[in-house]
Amino acid sequence: MKGLRWRYTRLPSQVEDALSGEEGEQEEEEEEEAAPAPAPAAEDPPEPQLTAASQVLGASEIRQLSFHLPPRVSGCPWSLVFCTSRDGFSLRSLYRQMEGRGGPALLVLRDQDGQTFGAFSSSAIRLSKGFYGTGETFLFSFSPQLKVFKWTGSNSFFVKGDLDSLMMGSGSGQFGLWLDGDLYHGGSYPCATFNNEVLARQEQFCIKDLEAWVLS
């Protein structure tokens, strides 16, 4: 009688199972580590540094405006070159204070109704025979949340400085922002340049405070 032959299968031990499981976890961890990192979020613009305290804009308004300024002026100090409380209500004085300034300008106003609004000009405010500026120019209003009206591309009527008036944005005979020679009366109307709303509560207004800042 021939001897019986036994066939058997070796089962893995608990130790081997554990080691196999650890190797699988390590492979998964390595795959996770190899995954590409997400793109970094866009950085907020640096906090603007003002050379003097503003009597028109608070810290929150300044911060909100900084998000809409061109990248080339990000981080530049804000220099107060003109304010009605110090220099008086005179457009000619504003022009004189702006002489020799090459940087962009921020014009901020508060009217007798307490409304705050203004404009960013791609270059310093100055006397001119015609309109000047670039598509960086925009109008804005806090009513009470910030609204910014950027260039539409419809025309290039950005800024024009006469002896007796300052105009920003135009179309159909109306100006997005208009100031008289005494810097006391002004007006704001919808215009094609910026497709803006009326910046003040009324189309015609009286100025209480005005500041001009150079960003460079």
UniProtKB/TrEMBL annotation:
One GO term describing the cellular component: nucleus
Domain TLDc, residue spans: 55-216
PROSITE patterns: TLDC
One GO term (biological process): response to oxidative stress
Extent of Acidic residues compositional bias: 19-34
InterPro entries the UniProt entry points to: TLDc_dom
Taxonomic superkingdom: Eukaryota
Residues covered by region (Disordered): 14-48
PANTHER family linked to this entry: NUCLEOLAR PROTEIN 7/ESTROGEN RECEPTOR COACTIVATOR-RELATED, TLD DOMAIN-CONTAINING PROTEIN 2
Name recorded for this polypeptide: TBC/LysM-associated domain containing 2
Organism (species): Microcebus murinus (Gray mouse lemur)
Upper lineage: Eukaryota, Metazoa, Chordata, Craniata, Vertebrata
Gene: TLDC2
